[in-house]
Each structure stands twice: as structure tokens, then as C-alpha cells.
Amino acid sequence: MTPSEWLNAVVPLVANLPRKMSESERYRSLLEAVRTLFPCDAVALLRLENGYLLPLAIDGLSRDTLGRRFRVADHPRLQALLAAEQAIHFPPGSPLPDPYDGLVEGLQGQLEVHDCMGVALHMEGAPWGLLTLDSLSPGCFTLEHLRNLDAFGNLAAATVAAATRIKRLEELAQREHLQAERYRRAGGQPNRQLLGHSPAFRQLLKEVDLVAASELTVLITGETGVGKELVAQALHERSGRRDRPFVSLNCAALPETLVESELFGHLRGAFTGAVTERQGKFELADGGTLFLDEVGELSLSVQAKLLRVLQSGQLQRLGSDREHRVDVRLIVATNRDLAAEVRAGRMRADIYHRLSVYPLPVPPLRERGRDVLLLSGFFLEENRGRLGVGSLRLEQDAQEALMAYDWPGNVRELEHLIGRSVLKALGRQQPRPRILSLTAQDLGLPSPGQVAIHKDDESTSLGTPAVAGVALSTLGLRQTVESIERRLIEQCLLRHQHNWTAAARELRMDRANLSRLAKRLGVAPPSRSFVSRGTGAN
After folding, report:
1. 532 CB contacts (<8 Å, ≥6 apart)?
2. Which terminus of the chain faces fewer neighbouring Cβ atoms within 10 Å, N or C?
3. Which residues form the domain of 299?
4. SS3 of residue 335 by DSSP
């Protein structure tokens, strides 16, 4: 081959390296250059992956070759090529079987390959794959062809590296774009996950898994601070819309005059201060999930417009006559009794039935038993990393105080309490200790024996851990007694590091009877693994 013929085949490949091309187009041009430079009947580009060679591009081989996976250990020629530092020629009559026998498209009835060359392609110092050339004619390849293939292998490796890196960059850009969109639309708040072992919490997770895959509208109910937004995020992440936006809006955080604009968007000049056109939350969440927190705060006029979107999937921006169609999965949350709001005339009955397709109550922290310690551990680790402390731990009296407290503010109150207590404890200790232990005094919580039962506005100290945090004003006699028994058993188990025999001895009960009572009260044995690695609250 003359130098001009070599240049005519190679220059287009070099020129294509910086160009934006699809991976298949780049590989096809590489094989076309090989067919121009070498007298072969077939050429293949294969990528090494977990001990197999996968054909990425072929020319002259049967189409089913692309679906084959060549196990390297089963093919001595492929093994030899991958192990060699330079191109290899397998002459006619080589005893090593050729993996392409019967696959080369050539003369009718001629199935065996009679001449073969190949070269390993390396990327970042490791074998990436192979370029193989085959001929049905014996003696087709010469020593000059072998030297040329060795030189061409470097250009082929550069082509493969360019295609691989461009593909990685495109995938990275796509992932970052999706992530940026999620953060932008959700206000930049990184998601936390759910954490808990208690029977009440396991039931919640079971319901989340059940309804997440559906398209049903979910009404999340629960007290302030229990983690309703985290539950909404978990529903989204377990749904088929997980790769689409999750957009949230707190309906109580905006004046009534702006709620409609936030939900449906507006045109420029639609109202005073509307200086630009703007998309609403429904449009931003198109294809994904929209979470409306404190939905019970919506006015009756906004409820009517929301109902129309739920019925038809169509909305109008403020100031516009044009309708937009959106595909949104709606999740709403409230700490109000919406049925009572309907009876009081503050919520439309039709919107209530649209929103409460699948009610999902989130248990308060006081009903989650030892989950308070798991959550405390998570918040301690967060503060440890944030404040640069070697280790943060809870003394026994701090653990008992956390278990005994009633948590009217739920998980959010616990998070703030831990952060505040760690900061204050650090401020009192100079120099800063490597291991910081928090006591009940550091937490600012009463010890279990000092916790009072509150009834109405009066407080009566009973001086016993058995009645810690029991609200008699909201519970009947039987539930109050069960709550006292549950707290007493949990605290006793905590003191004995969950040794049930020792706990039964202290409680003067038969161990089997204690186990049955604990099971009835929902006190489960401690689990050895976390449900997930993070938490938070709404």
C-alpha cells in the first residue's frame, strides 16, 4: 500500500476524533478504514467485559455475531491476542481454533477461516478489547500487514478512547442535568431517608411500598414534625416517576393571593408585580410528582381550580386563556382532620374525596418506641461531622430520658434538641474533647423518675418511669395503662441491654409471660440492621 493510500484511510479517522459523533458511527468508520487498508473478508471490534468479549461493531460477519458473547477462557486465539503486547498473526494451519469459523460471509459452503490477525486495544493501561481481521483465503496477510496493524492499533485505541470518554461525558452531563433540575425545583434540599424499626414504623414502610408503584393520589396525615415530606419523597423514589422531578409546595407558607400563581403559573401583567411569565408547580412537576404540604390551608376558590386539574389534567396560568395539559402524580399532606374541615365548610367535599384516595397516617414519635434512639444516633452523627468532633455518644440516663419524653414536636423536635445540646455541651468543655458524652442534663430533659403526667393544664409528678409522657387527657383508662406498661418494659429492657431474662427478673414476671405481653403491646426485640441510612422530619 502506498503512503497516499494509507493517509487517505487514516486522515478521516484522525479528523473525526474531536467531532461529535455517535458511538456506532465512530466504530463504523473505524472498520471501514480497516477494510480499506487490509485485504480481509471480515473485521470485528470487541470489548472485554467480565471475562467475555462482546462484539460492538462488525463488517463481513453474519449479523447474529453481534448477539454472541465470546468467553475468553474458551477461545485460545482471543486469549493470546489479549495477552500480547503487539499484533499477532495466526498463519494458515494454526492448531488454535478460530472463533469466527462459520460466521464469515463469503463463498457458498466455505466456512473455515484460513488467515487471521488481531491486536489488543488498551485504555488507561489495561486491555479494553480486540480488533480482529479474518480472511477465507490462505496466505492473505503478510509481515508488512502485521506491522501496519500494529501501528493502526494505536489509532484504533485512540478512536475507542474518544468514543468511550464522549459517552461518559454525555451520561455525566445528563445525570448532572437531572440532578440540578431536581435540586432547582425542590429548592436545593438534599433528600433524607426514613429510619425506624418499631412495629408502627414498619407498618408505615409496608404501606409506602404498597402504594408507591401506583398512580393513586396519597393523603399523608400526621402531627407536625413526624416526617410527612420524607414519606412523600419515599413514595416518589419508589415509583415509576423516580427519574422525573419531585416538586414541593407548602400551602401555608404563602399568602392566599400568591398560592394560585405558585400552583398554576402566570403571564406577565396578570397581577401587580407579575413582571415576567412564570411556570407554576404543576408544570414544573410535569411527568413527576407534586407534593402539596398543609393542603388544608387552601382557600375554597383555589380548591375549585385544583379540582379541575385533578379531573382533567388541564390548567390555565393566571392571565391566560390557553390551557396546558400536565401529567402529575399528586401527594398531599396535612396535620388537620380534613373530614372535620369538610363538615365545618372550610373544605369542599369533592376535593376531599379526590385528595384522600389513599390515606396514609404517619405515627408520632411517642408511638415509635426505641426508634427515638436510632434517630438520635443519626442526628448525633450528622452533628459530629458538622462540628468536627471525634465521637458523640449518649449516656445511659440520656437514653432513658429520650425514651421517656413525650415528643410533642416529634422528629423535628428531636433533631433540634440534639443539635442544640451538642453545641451547648461543646461550649462548656474546654479544650474540646475527642469523645463527647451527652447526659440527660445536657439534653435539658427530666430524668424518667421526674417526668410528670399532664392532664389539661395541671401537672402531677408521680416519681416513676412507668408513667413517663402519658397524656391522660387524650387517652382512655385502658390505653393509658397499656402505654404505662409499654414504657416500663422498654425502659427496663434498656437498662439491661435487652436481656429479656434480666428484665423479667426485675419486673418479677415469668420470661414467657413478659414476651407475650411485650408482643401484645408492640414492643419488639431490637433489630440488628437499619431499615435505611438517613432520616429527617416534616
Report:
1. 193, 194, 195
2. N
3. 199-362
4. coil
Contact (Cβ atoms closer than 8 angstroms) between residue 523 and residue 490? yes
Indicate the SS3 state at residue 13: helix
Residue 532 included in any domain:
no
Residue 482 CA to residue 488 CA, distance in Å, equals 10
Q: Are 356 and 227 in contact (CB under 8 A)?
A: no
Do 162 and 89 have their domain in common? yes
| Shared domain check, 11 and 102 | yes
Q: Which residue has the cell 423535628?
A: 412
Q: How far is CA 431 from CA 335, 397, 419, 422, 424, in A?
A: 44, 24, 20, 15, 14
- Strand 126-135 versus strand 70-71 pairing type: unpaired
Q: Which long-range contacts (CB under 8 A, 24 or more apart) does 80-86 make?
A: 81/118, 81/119, 81/120, 81/130, 81/132, 82/48, 82/120, 82/127, 82/130, 83/120, 84/120, 86/119, 86/150
- pLDDT tier at 218, thresholds 50, 70, 90: very high
For 241-289, write each residue's pLDDT tens digit.
988 889 888 888 777 778 777 888 877 766 766 667 778 888 888 889 9
Query: The C-alpha cell of 94 is what?
Result: 494454526
| pTM assigned to the model | 0.51
In a domain, 535, yes or no: no
Q: Which three cell numbers stand for residue 119?
A: 491486536
Can you tell me the distance from the alpha carbon of 152 to that of 36, in angstroms, rounded to the nearest whole number? 12
